[in-house]
Write the structure tokens for this entry.
Amino acid sequence: MLSRRGLLGGLAAGAALAPATRLAGKPRMGGRVRVAGIVASTADTLDPARAGNSSDYMRMFLLYSGLMQYDQGLLVKAGLAESIETDDNIRWTIRLRRGVHFHNGKALTADDVVYSLLRHRDPAVGSKVKAVAEQFVSARRIGPLEVELRLVGPNPDIPVILAQPQFVIVENGRRDFREANGTGPFVLKAFAPGIRTIVRRNPNYWKSGKPYLDEIELIAIPDELSRVNALLSGDVQMVIAVSPGSVKRVRASGSHLVMETKSGVYTDLVMRQDNPVTGHPDFALAMKYLLDRDLIKRALFRGFATIANDQPISPLDPHFNPAIPQRAFDPDRARFLLKRSGLLGTRLPVYVSPAATQSVDMGSILQEHAARIGLNLAINRVPSDGYWSTHWMKHPLTFGNINQRPTADLMFSLFFQSKATENEAGWKNERFDRMLIEARQARDPAVRKAIYGEMQLMIHQTGGVGIPVFISLLDGYDRRVRGLQPIPMGGLMGYSFGEHVWLDA
């Protein structure tokens, strides 16, 4: 369990510890499952710092363990850390479990944690969470199983942040990630980037009795119809990201089920702010008025979604600002803004891909509404393979697909802070950056919530992203697969299904 002081820090962020998940029925040892994700490319990685998509996250949680772990809701529980304590939200003492070993037999020590935390600050590493890790002033060993993490300023979200897949623990000094050496529930058997990952049960896993499965094969089937067909034919036993339109078909099979998880996941229209057209404030606002949110929820997601309001914090988050007036679909207002900016009649390409959930159909709806007011949007559909590395953020208009983050601080730090590597729209606002620091320093939770509320309003008004809905996560699986529970951070239990599921006879 976390200490009282560590727990109080988490509660200030709206996070809390949760009791261990109760699994329905008695777990059974043995068996093999094949799991289909949606993303695969030659950029597939075994380096946690570089993990940037759902398939990467699943791979990380299969092979590595974090200091903290996600539980149901937006909750965290102790992982490799037995306790995380703080008196001031600046200096954190992390005490590690005894008897934990890496897959190569090396014992886990404080040195591994120090190295794992600080490597994210090195630009050469290319960490996806570098902007977050820059809060780490120092991490030092104060005992064989004890680390002191010191921050640049207060941040009560540290226990939650450390549950992110990028922050799982690697071996001290590890730079070669052609192989994986973690402390996770499975050991790497085979890895072919863009093709498959095969892992086998770690007999020395630090959680007694887990995992239950002997082997898991992770592949990617980018096309949703093909992914569902593979599930129904028995070629795979679990699939992520079932389309709402396929739910009835999967359930009708009699041998498969669908799990819905309410989440803060969103597919957003990304309007680069460093482009003279898409960066024009009137253009960005006009495009937000052209998002037909009700139609998108009803027609594209069959009701498996929650109306959003161009603010990235979902109603699931305790820091959600419900006072921001809902932006309605208003083509007339959009036409006025475009005409005022001199951009009416502009022709612009929009890049869509099955990789960004429902972006192909969102793009078509947007194109149709734009044409009616004199804006010519050319929809360019590109394959899922390579979309994130080749197209996303590389063109004036693209679609992103952002997973739920457990705290407002993480969402803002990763995607809206000026220096964030995945600031999709290249939106830069110095006041926003200052407020991010102010929120971390606020000891009064009400003050912190008010700051986050204003930051959401700033994104709603001037940000370069249009967020129409928050998408429920839909996972399909063979009914013999047991142990699945909803975790809002992502599909298949926030990507951490591996250690929890088993096959019923």
Notes: The mean pLDDT is 92. The longest strand covers residues 256-271.
